[in-house]
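Design a sequence for this backbone.
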C-alpha cells in the first residue's frame, strides 16, 4: 500500500491556526462544496489537507490542477483511519481538526473554536463542532434543520440566513467530527486506531483513548456549526464490525461509554469526573463482551 500513496504539499506558510483533515472517496461535488464553504466562512488561518481515496470520479485530476490545497493521493481506498494518520507529516498547525467531506462549514466556525481554545488555557481537551442535520435521528448533540439532503436541493442561502437559530448550549461528549485536538494529544494516542479500518467506531475509540490518557474535557461547542448532509461516503462502504471491536478492546459498549463516561448530550458545565462504575453496569457489560466474542467468531 505504501508505494501507492503520494503526498502533495502546496502550503507555503509555516504556521496555521488549524490543520483541517478531510478524507474523500469519489465524492467530488461534495468535497468541492465543503472547500468552498471553508474558504467563504472561515476567519482563521486554515491549512487544508485532503486525502483523496481512489479519485476515479475526477477528484484526483481536479486536485492535481489546484495549487492551493495540500493533499494525499491513494490509488486504493484506505479508509478513514489510515487516511487521517498519514496526514501527520504534512501538518503545520498545533491544532488538528478532522472533518467529513459532506459538511458545509458555517460562518465563524473556526473563530468560535479558536476563542474556546484560548479561554481553556490548556491542551487537555477534545472539542467538537455542532452539526445541523436534515433529519431527527435522536442524537441529542445535533440540531435538526432541513436544508437539503443532496447538493441539488441544498438551500445554501436559507441556511446562511437561519443558521444562528440552531446555536445550542455547549454539550458534553465530544466525539464526532468536526473535532479538534492538540497535535501533542494526537501523537500521544497515535491518531486513529487502524483495527477499526475502514472506520466504523473509530470515533468513540479515539475518544476512549483520550479518556485513558486522562482527558476529561470533552465539549461540543454549541455556537460553532456545520451542516451535515449525512454519511454520503460511509453508506457505500463494506463496514467493519466496529461495535464488536470496541466491546472486545475496552470491555464496554460504545453506548455505555457515551452515556456513563462522557455524559453524551447533557449541557456542559464542567470537565467530567473520574468514572466509578457501578457493579450492575460492570456485570451487564461483561455479559455483552462474552456475547460479542461469540458473535465475532467465524
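Sequence:
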Amino acid at each position: 500500500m505504501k508505494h501507492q500513496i503520494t503526498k502533495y504539499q502546496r502550503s507555503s506558510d509555516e504556521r496555521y491556526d488549524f490543520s483541517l483533515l478531510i478524507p474523500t472517496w469519489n465524492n467530488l461535488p461534495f468535497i468541492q462544496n465543503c472547500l468552498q464553504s471553508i474558504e467563504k466562512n472561515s476567519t482563521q488561518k486554515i491549512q487544508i489537507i485532503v486525502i483523496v481515496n481512489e479519485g476515479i470520479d475526477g477528484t484526483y485530476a481536479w486536485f492535481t490542477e489546484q495549487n492551493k490545497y495540500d493533499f494525499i493521493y491513494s490509488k486504493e481506498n484506505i479508509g478513514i483511519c489510515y487516511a487521517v494518520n498519514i496526514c501527520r507529516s504534512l501538518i503545520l498547525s498545533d491544532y488538528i481538526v478532522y472533518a467529513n467531506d459532506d459538511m458545509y462549514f458555517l460562518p465563524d466556525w473556526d473563530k468560535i473554536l479558536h476563542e474556546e481554545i484560548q479561554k481553556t488555557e490548556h491542551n487537555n481537551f477534545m472539542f467538537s463542532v455542532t452539526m445541523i442535520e436534515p433529519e431527527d435521528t435522536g442524537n441529542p448533540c445535533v440540531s435538526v434543520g432541513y436544508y437539503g439532503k443532496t447538493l441539488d436541493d441544498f438551500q445554501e442561502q436559507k441556511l446562511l440566513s437561519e443558521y444562528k437559530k440552531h446555536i445550542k448550549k455547549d454539550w458534553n461528549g465530544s466525539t464526532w467530527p468536526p473535532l479538534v485536538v492538540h497535535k501533542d494529544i494526537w501523537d500521544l494516542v497515535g491518531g486513529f486506531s487502524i483495527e477499526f479500518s475502514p472506520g466504523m467506531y473509530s470515533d468513540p475509540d479515539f475518544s476512549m483513548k483520550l479518556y485513558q490518557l486522562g482527558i476529561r474535557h470533552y465539549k461540543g461547542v454549541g455556537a460553532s456549526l456545520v451542516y451535515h448532509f449525512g454519511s454520503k461516503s460511509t453508506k457505500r462502504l463494506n463496514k467493519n464490525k466496529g461495535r464488536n471491536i470496541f466491546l472486545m478492546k475496552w470491555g464496554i459498549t460504545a453506548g455505555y461509554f457515551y452515556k456513563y463516561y462522557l455524559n453524551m448530550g447533557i449541557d456542559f458545565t464542567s470537565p467530567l469526573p473520574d468514572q466509578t462504575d457501578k457493579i450492575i453496569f460492570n456485570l451487564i457489560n461483561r455479559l455483552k463482551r462474552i456475547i460479542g466474542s461469540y458473535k465475532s467468531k467465524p
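Residues 2-296 form a domain with the Spore Coat Polysaccharide Biosynthesis Protein SpsA; Chain A fold (CATH 3.90.550.10).
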